[in-house]
Amino acid sequence: MRWDVLVPLLAYLSVIAAIGVWANRRLRHSDHSSSEYFLAGRTLGWTVLVFTLLTSIASAGTFVGGPGLGYELGFGWVLASLGQASAAFVVLGVLGKKVAILTRKLGSVTVTDLVRHRYDSPAVVIFISLATVGLLLAYMTAQFTGGARVLEATTGLDYNVVVIVFAVTVAMYTAFGGYRAVTLTDTVQGVVMLIGGVVLWIAVIAATGGAGAATATLVSDFPDLVTLPGAGEFTLPMLASFWVLLGVPVAVLPHVAVRGMSYRDSGAMHRAMMAGPAIMTVFTLGFIAMGPFARHFFPALEIGDLAVPRTILEVLPGWAAGTLFAAPLAAIMSTVDSILLIVAATIVKDLYQNYVRPGVGDERATTLSSAVTLGAGLVVLGLSFNPPPFLEYLVLFAIGGLEAALLWPVLFGLNWKRGNTLGAGLSGGVGLVAYLIASQVLDNPLGMDPIMTGLGAGLVGYLVGVAFGAPPTRAQLIKFWGTNAAVQDVLETERAAKGAAA
Amino acid sequence: MGPTAGHDAHDEQFPEDPRYALCRRELWIAIAYWAAHGVATIGVAWAIGGGRGAEELQLTLGFPSWFFWSGIVVALLFSLAPVWLVRRWFTDVSIDAEDGSR
C-alpha cells in the first residue's frame, strides 16, 4: 500500500464529493428542476463549458488506454489520436448556435428528444434510445475498469475494493448533484489534467535527459514504434478513418451534444471554441505521446495500459504522483458522470415520459432520474467485476457504434429540410448493423476502421429513405426552421391534440 | 393545413428564423477547418515519414521529424487558428428562443 500516493488521491475524491453535495443544495432551491438537473439551467460560461466538453471527450481513452496503445503501436497512434485535438471548435461549430436555439425553443434536454421532434416516430426514438443506452453502458464499463485497474496496480489495493469505491463516489455525486455538479467537477478535473499533462512532460524530460534520449531507445530497440505506418499499420486510409472517428461525428455523441445545449450565450460558445483546441492539444500530446516514451523506462510491460501510471510513479515523488493520478481518474470520472446523466435522461425523459407515463410531473421525473442514475451506476459496477482485456478498443468500439447510428439522423435532421423519418430509421438501423458486421465479423474492410463502413452504409440508407419516403411534415419543418412564435404554435397544437386523444 | 399538408410541405412558406442562415455558414467553417486540419496533419506526416524505415529516420528536437512537423508544429498552428477564425467569421447573436436581436 502506497499511503503517500493514496492520501492526496483520497483528499481529491472528497473534494469532488463535496461539490456534488453543494450542487444538490442549489438544485433544491431552483425552479425548472429538469432543465436545472440535466443542463444546469443552460447557464454555463466559457471556462466551465470548455472543460466539461473536453473532459467528456477525453476519457480513460486519452489518459490510460490511449497512452497504452501508444506504448504498443508507437507514434503512429499518437498522430491518429490528434484527430480529437480540435474537438471543441469542431463540435461546437457543427452543433452550432442552431442546437442551442432550437433546444431552447423546444425545451429539449437530450439529442433523442431532438430526434423525436424532427421525425415524430416512436420506432426511431425507441431504436435510438436503446442503441444509446446499450453502447453507453459498454463505454462506461471500459471507463470504470480502466480507472479501477490503474488504481489497483498503483496503490496495491484489491481490484474489487477499488472499483466499488470508485463507482460509489461517481454515482453518488452525479445522482444527487445533476449536471451542475458534473460540469463543476469537470472544470476542477480539467485544470488538474492540464497541469498534470505539463508537469509529467517536464518530469519525464528531466528523468530521461531529453526527448532525444527516449527516442534513441525506441529507434534502436523498437523501430516499429517510430515509423509510419509502423506497428499499428497506420496507412493513409487508416489515419483518415481515425480522423473521421474522432472528428465531426463526435458532435452527435449524446454526452457531447448536450454540452452544445447548455451554454449561456454565443460569447461563451465563441471563447470555448477559441481556447478548446489548445487545451485539448496539451491533453493529447501530454498523455498519449507519453505512451511510446514509457518504453524508455519499461521496455516490456505486460499491460500496456499501465504505461502512464507506471511512468508517473517512476518520475515523480509519491505525493506528486498521487495528485497527478487524480488526472486520469478525473478524466474517467468526468466522462462516466456525464454519461450516467445521459442514460438517466434517455430512460426517464425519452422513453418513460414519452411512451410509458406521459403525464408524469417534472418533480417526480427528477427523483426518478436520480434513481436511474444510481441504478445505471450499479449495472456498470456489476459489469466491471469482469473487466475486458483492452480498454481502448472497447472505448473506440462504443464511440463508433454511436456515431454510426446517430450521425446522419442528427446532422441531416438539423440541416437538411428534405431529411425524413424513413431516412433516419434506415440510416440508424443500417449504419449500426453495418458497423457491427464490419467490426465484429470482417476485419477492418478496405484497410479502414469500421466507422467508415458504418457511416457509408448509414449515408446510403438516409439517401434511400429521402428518395422513397414521405417528405417531412410542415410541423416538423417549422419546429426546426421556424421562428419561435411559429414553433410555439405547433407545440401548442400538439399538446391540444394529445389532450383530445387522452 | 389540409389533409395533404405533409406532401406539399416544401411549397408552403412559413416565417424562418433568420439566425439559422448564420449557423449554416458557421457549420461549414467548422467542417472545412476539420478537413484542413486532417489533410495538413496526415499529409505532412506522410510526406516526411510515410513508408520510410527506422534506419532513414531523422530527428528534430528529439522527436521523429515526421511527428515533430505534423504532430507538434501543425498541431500548434491549428490549435491557435480558431482564435482568428472565430473573431473573423463568427457572429455574436442572441441564442434565446426569441430572436432578441431584432
Quick overview:
The complex is a heterodimer of chains A (502) and B (102). Chain A is mainly α.
Largest interface: A-B, 72 and 68 residues
E-strand count of chain B: 2
Helical content class of chain A: over 70%
Strand order of the biggest β-sheet of chain B: 1-2
Distance between the termini of chain B: 29 Å
Q: What Rg of chain A do the Cα atoms give?
A: 22 Å
Helix proportion of chain B: 40-55%
Biggest sheet of chain B, open or closed, and with what strands and sense? 2 strands, antiparallel
The percentage of residues in β strands of chain A lies in under 5%
Record field, number of beta strands of chain A: 0
Contiguous runs where pLDDT drops below 50 for at least 5 residues of chain A: none
Strand content of chain B: under 5%
Oligomer: heterodimer
Shape of chain A: globular
Q: In angstroms, what is the radius of gyration of chain B?
A: 23 Å
| Total of DSSP H or I helical runs spanning 4+ residues of chain B | 2
One letter per element, helices H and strands E, the order of chain B comes to: HEEH
